[in-house]
Amino acid sequence: MTTPARRPTGFDAAFDAYLAATKTIVIAVSVAMLVLMTVVNGIEIGGRAFFARSFSWVQEVSILAAMWVYFFAYALIAKDEEYIRVDFAVDLMGERGQRIAGIVARLFTIVFHGIVVWFGVETFRFLGLFTTSVLAWPESLFVLPLLLGAIDIALTELIYLTRQLAGRETRHARPIVPGVD
Predict the structure, then answer these.
(1) What's the total number of domains in the chain?
(2) Would you say residue 173 has pLDDT above 70?
(3) CA gyration radius for the chain?
(4) Comparing C-alpha atoms, which of 141, 109, 23 is closest to residue 73?
(5) Which domain holds residue 84?
(6) Residue 143 resides in a domain
(7) Is the pLDDT assigned to residue 176 strictly greater than 50?
(8) What is the pLDDT of residue 12?
């Protein structure tokens, strides 16, 4: 027995706007940082190959860019609900069990990212006392993408949880192989 979907509320338009805007930002930042990483490492490879010279700043810039790519790509996974799942176990449950499992899983995800944000803030504040050895940038910059990514994922999951509890779940199911259901 399927429960009919409930009508959207006034918050749904704001939630949809947030999800769309942050998805665009997450993609743009991830792509820009990936390009930056590629260019910076290309400069390093070219410097070593043609001039027998290495640039000391490449590692710091590459690691920082990689942090942005990693944590923002994870935020994109959250927006599209493309987590690694164990659907076969949930599919064995009845409709009520599936609903409960979905809510519990989402609550665990929210709590986990809330803890990440909490420790991220503390780490950001602590690392702000130090600078990198080459570029003298605040070391807290390395934690910033983790912090922003975790905040975005927690907010995204809260939006999906409110919809789930209201009976307006967003389904992002896609076949494993495109074009095959």
Answers:
(1) 1
(2) no
(3) 21
(4) 23
(5) 14-165
(6) yes
(7) no
(8) 85
pLDDT by residue (tens digit) across 16-71?
Answer: 999 999 999 999 999 999 999 999 999 999 999 999 999 999 999 999 999 999 99
* H or E stretch at 21: helix 10-51
Instruction: State the DSSP string of 102-152.
Output: HHHHHHHHHHHHHHHHHHHHHHHHHHTT-B-TTT--BGGGGTHHHHHHHHH
Query: How far is residue 109's CA from residue 115's CA, in Å, rounded to a whole number?
Result: 10
In this prediction the pTM is: 0.82
Buried b (16+ CB within 10 A) or exposed e, 120-144: beebbeebeeeebeeeebebbbbbb
For residue 16 the two structure tokens come to 């949809």
Q: Which residues contact 33 (CB under 8 A, 6 or more apart)?
A: 65, 66, 68, 69, 72
Asked if residue 52 is part of any domain, the answer here is yes
25 CB neighbour count, 10 Å cutoff? 14
**94 domain-assigned:** yes
C-alpha 12: how far from chain center: 21
Q: Which residues of 85-108 are buried (b: 16+ CB within 10 A; e: fewer)?
A: eeeeeeeeeeeeeebeebeeebee
- For residue 176, tell me if it sits in a domain: no
